[in-house]
Amino acid sequence: MPTARESLLDAALSALAELPWSGVRMVDVASAARVSRQTLYNEFGSKEGLARALVRREADVYLRGVDRALAEHTDPADRLVRIAEWTCGSARSSALVRALLTGCWSERLPAPSARAVVSVSAVPAQRRADAGVPGPAELVAAVRDRALAALEREAPGADPVELARYCETAVRLGLSFVVAPLGRGEGHAGYVRAVLARLPVRAMGQRLDG
Length: 210
Prior knowledge:
The chain is mainly alpha-helical. The protein folds into two domains: 1-45, Homeodomain-like (Arc Repressor Mutant, subunit A, Orthogonal Bundle); 57-197, Tetracycline Repressor, domain 2 (Orthogonal Bundle). It has helices spanning 4-18, 26-33, 37-44, 47-71, 76-93, 95-102, 136-154, 160-179, 188-197. Residues 114-129 and 206-210 have low confidence and may be disordered.
């Protein structure tokens, strides 16, 4: 059963699907979550606090998807392709994820004023809301670092600079599809794999290319 905090965040996200953030009222969010308005303020402090927690949760959902892709039992290139596809798909399905990745916040969205580096803490997103939310550069760096850590464990002899570039390229290709989608009939996977195959990563041989 969801906690009061999760219910409030769910209610806020549902309200945002119908209204611009400026039109979302705290009293309505509390009512939809079936908690008191005082509970809402106790949890988040203000509407800005609620916005930060909501955006932070979306960032964490995106990063958990990245972790799932990296945990798959496939070759490194396939996992990076999955990250690019996940990035593109997440941005299509969530306006908040798209804004986080691109830095483009429309008037409809809760654009938190505070920014912070992505934390790798396991503490739930809403409890870290006061630390702010990541900007695009921090989010890209977080995905790159996660991918780098996963691939380094499998091939400790790889050149770390080249491997980091390899990982970041996949992330940025995914972002390019968000900003400028491929034409109908074109596949993300083949495009990403073709680009990655041209990047040298010494000491890894064919492991990255499958």
